[in-house]
Amino acid sequence: MAAWESSLDELVRSRGSALVGYAYLLCGDRREAEDLVQDALVKTFSRGRSGFEPASVEGYVRRAVLTTYVDGFRRRRRWAAVRHLVAPDDVGPGPEASTADRIDVRSALAALSPRERACIVLRFYEDLTVPAIAEALALSQGSVKRYLSDGVHRMEGLLGPMPKAHAAATEQGADGIDVVEIVTGGRTR
Predict the structure, then answer these.
(1) Rounded to an integer, what distance in angstroms lies between the CA atom of residue 168 and that of residue 125?
(2) Sign (positive/negative) of CA torsion 176, 178, 184, 185?
(3) Lowest mean pLDDT among 8-12, 139-143, 178-182
(4) How far apart are CA 26 and CA 23, in angstroms?
(5) How many other C-beta atoms are found inside a 10 Å radius of the C-beta of residue 72?
(6) Which of 125, 124, 146 is nearest to 134 (CA)?
(7) CATH number of 96-184
(8) What DSSP character marks residue 28?
(9) Is 0.85 topped by the overall pTM?
């Protein structure tokens, strides 16, 4: 594997969601943000340059996201003027429904001990397995399971029943379940 390929792989694995979040702030549409990041990655890595440091490559990609967005502004504006003639409306639920849940989750996390909170965040946000959490925190797997169990029970006292969290807290594999969905049980307000 070439050096640039490993830099690309590391960047996408570790910072891909942050890059999409950055692009989303620019364009306001999740799918367009993903496309912007993809285009920026192609622009940055298509030349097969070597010497990219994983710490600095994100800056190149962020700059490419920005220039790709700015360069495509006229094209997007023109398409927006005629899109309604050929494409269905892309209206979907906004983030407003989950805002209150996110605030509740943050408050519940603040009530946890530092180790419980670390285990909960690593399991449900970073999507690490119990063995990976144990290694990251230099704890035994049993201790991690105990901190996860205690943390989930404590959060249930503040948020209500969380049946999905109990199953996910002890799973060994990555599951990709959203932390707000886990701790709120999928409820909406």
Answers:
(1) 12
(2) negative
(3) 178-182
(4) 5
(5) 16
(6) 146
(7) 1.10.10.10
(8) S
(9) no
